[in-house]
Write a structure and sequence with these properties.
Layout: E1 5-15, E2 18-26, E3 34-41, H1 48-66, E4 71-76, H2 79-82, H3 92-104, E5 109-113, H4 119-129
Parallel strand pairs: 1-4, 4-5
Antiparallel strand pairs: 1-2, 2-3
Helix pairs in contact: 1-3
């Protein structure tokens, strides 16, 4: 890793009506990476594609919120995500956020396919993406369980 590049490793996970996203942030001068987990309950069955785009959205939101002073490389093991923005299933909210960052963020953002040397970080992101499973109810779904609002105004999930 170069000292001027910030690396973000993402992975999504889906099971039943839940999706999770893992985000691993690695700076060359850090002793250990930062790990973040996100989860959401959906009103319909989840898919791995939805979860992978959820992970990308969370990475882009992190960039927008923290405004790091580096070029950024986002790594994913999902071909759907790495073909953003040309992939036909890219959610409109993700495209809009990516466009906002490309016009306002002063550094470059690249989305790349993870390679073998990235696997330890992708594995950590995968583990973080699955933390939602600890909160999944056992047996029938609870009718009192709150649902996190859909992402953005387009409600692509």
């Amino acid at each position: 890793m170069t000292s001027k590049m910030l690396h973000l490793f993402i992975d999504g996970s889906a099971k039943e009506n839940f999706i999770g996203a893992g985000l691993i942030i690695v700076e060359s001068h850090q002793a250990s990476p930062i790990t973040q987990s996100f989860h959401m309950k959906l009103n319909h069955p989840a898919t791995s594609t939805i979860a992978e785009f959820f992970a990308l959205r969370k990475a882009l939101e992190w960039i927008q919120e923290h405004q790091p002073e580096n070029d950024i490389m986002i790594f994913s093991d999902s071909q759907d995500v790495t073909s953003t923005p040309t992939h036909p299933m890219t959610p409109p909210d993700v495209l809009q956020l990516l466009h906002q960052l490309q016009t306002s963020f002063p550094h470059q953002i690249h989305i790349e396919q993870a390679r073998n040397q990235h696997q330890p970080y992708i594995d950590k992101a995968h583990h973080a993406s699955r933390k939602y499973r600890a909160i999944m109810p056992k047996g029938p779904w609870s009718t009192t369980r709150s649902t996190i609002p859909a992402l953005g105004s387009h409600a692509w999930i």
